[in-house]
Design goal:
98 residues, mainly alpha, 5 helices, elongated
């Protein structure tokens, strides 16, 4: 997947942020908050909000929390044991691809 270990961690943290944003948008949309409030609460641009709002219908809230749990367990493991981040990112992409 990634040749440089720094590159894989940049990708990893972008994925963590993306899943966190999807969860936030899904919850705030469900609770009928307006776009301006969502942008300010999540510190995202109008482009990100528009793009992610079109994407959140692909996942249930439970699925998003499962993806987030997987990423956080990867983060914990990479800090505490010998861990193959490339392999786990490939597994995550497989889970994420619908």
């Amino acid at each position: 997947m990634a040749k440089d270990i720094d590159e894989i961690f940049k990708i990893f943290y972008m994925l963590v942020r993306h899943i966190r944003n999807l969860i936030g948008i899904k919850i705030l949309t469900r609770d009928s908050y307006n776009d301006s409030f969502m942008q300010k609460s999540l510190a995202i641009s109008s482009f990100e909000l528009r793009k992610d709002k079109g994407f959140i219908g692909n996942f249930s809230l439970d699925e998003l929390f499962d993806l987030q749990d997987f990423l956080y367990s990867c983060d914990l493991k990479q800090k505490s044991e010998d861990f193959d981040m490339n392999l786990n990112m490939l597994m995550f992409i497989e889970k994420f691809s619908k």
